[in-house]
Every structure is written in structure tokens, then in C-alpha cells.
């Protein structure tokens, strides 16, 4: 997965975008930072910071949400709402099993199988990002 995220990150950087990565846990966020060389935060930390600092997410930001199937519905709703309000692009990343077996409080549990086909919505991971 890191190889794909590296390609996505490189492509968006080439388009002049700011990449911000997030994951459910600090440790996972730290790994994203180390492997991709981008700013990364745990979801709760990102949400808290974004509420007080409008520069965290803007129309030039691409938000990579790693292991999206593991994020609770309230946190996911907050992330997506914030991104929509600020004009940021969101790329949801995760493996198929974690999306399909998500517990009831996980937003991805109800996504249809078509959501996992390349180019379909929502975008779970793609080596061909759209600007």
C-alpha cells in the first residue's frame, strides 16, 4: 500500500498540492510521515487542530485517510464535512477486508462492492489521482 501512496503523494505534489495524511492512531500516522515524507496526524488530533486553525485544510490540500475502514462514523463524518467545507480533496485508503467487515460504527460497512473498483466512488486508493 505504501508504494501506491508514494505514487499518489508524488503526483499530487507535482500538481502543487499539499498532502496531509491521517490515521486512527499516532503510531500509524508517524509511519505515514516517515514513509511518505508528509505531515501526518492521528484523526482526533487533526480534527482538534483543524477546528482552531483554518490553514490546516484548504482547497489546495489532499487528505490521505489511511485505514479508513477503521475510523468511526462520527470521526469520518467530521473529516468529510471539514474537507467539504474547506474544499480539500479526500483520498480514502484501506484494504478490502477491513472495509467489508467493518463494525456497525464504521462508515464503510455499507459501501457497495462497486466502491472498490478503480475509478469508482469513493476512491479507496488509486495510482492515478485526479486534480
From TrEMBL:
**Record's Gene3D superfamilies?**
P-loop containing nucleotide triphosphate hydrolases
| Taxonomic superkingdom | Bacteria
Pfam families noted in UniProt: AAA_30
Could you identify this protein by its name?
ATP-dependent RecD-like DNA helicase
Native organism is Methylorubrum aminovorans
Q: What is the lineage of its organism?
A: Bacteria, Pseudomonadati, Pseudomonadota, Alphaproteobacteria, Hyphomicrobiales
Amino acid at each position: 500500500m505504501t508504494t501506491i501512496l508514494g505514487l499518489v503523494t508524488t503526483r499530487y505534489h507535482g500538481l502543487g498540492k499539499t498532502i496531509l495524511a491521517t490515521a486512527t492512531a499516532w503510531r500509524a500516522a508517524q509511519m505515514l510521515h516517515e514513509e511518505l515524507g508528509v505531515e501526518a496526524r492521528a484523526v482526533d488530533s487533526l480534527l482538534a487542530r483543524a477546528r482552531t486553525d483554518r490553514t490546516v485544510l484548504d482547497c489546495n490540500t489532499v487528505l490521505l485517510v489511511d485505514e479508513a475502514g477503521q475510523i468511526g462514523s462520527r470521526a469520518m463524518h467530521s473529516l468529510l464535512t471539514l474537507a467539504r467545507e474547506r474544499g480539500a480533496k479526500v483520498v480514502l485508503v484501506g484494504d478490502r477486508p477491513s472495509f467489508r467487515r467493518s463494525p456497525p460504527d464504521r462508515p464503510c460497512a455499507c459501501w457497495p462492492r462497486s466502491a472498490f473498483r478503480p475509478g469508482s466512488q469513493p476512491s479507496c486508493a488509486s495510482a492515478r489521482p485526479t486534480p
